[in-house]
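I would like you to sit down with the record closing this message with an eye to the fold:
=====
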Amino acid sequence: MSGRTDCRPITTRYSEAFKLKIIREIEAGSSQAEVQKKYDIPTNSTIFHWLKKYGKHHLLSKVVRVEDASERNRIKRLEEEKTQLEKALAQTQIKLLAMESLVEVAEEYYKADFKKNFGHKLSAEHSPDES
């Protein structure tokens, strides 16, 4: 047989010299994407790990958030409002559960399906005075 018979994935091992060459190109101004495409490196995480390993953290992407006092105040106010709304929602859910329980108890007491008969008057046979 001339072809591969097993289905194991192919693992590519890069030499230390190759890794350092890639890092030097990035340091010289090439983007990670350009170098990755140029040398047919399958994933950008490979180069990312090389940069971390060789201490080139200054070449890694960083997220820097710049905001002024009014933005911080706005975010704080929105977070407080969110907390208040979450508390109000929790209270409403508790009230809903209480009302549903009340309806169930009333249905058992009056032997009626209030959800189904909502809006209809109770007949005299279901009045609570006769119990």
Remarks:
- The chain has two domains: 16-59, 69-117.
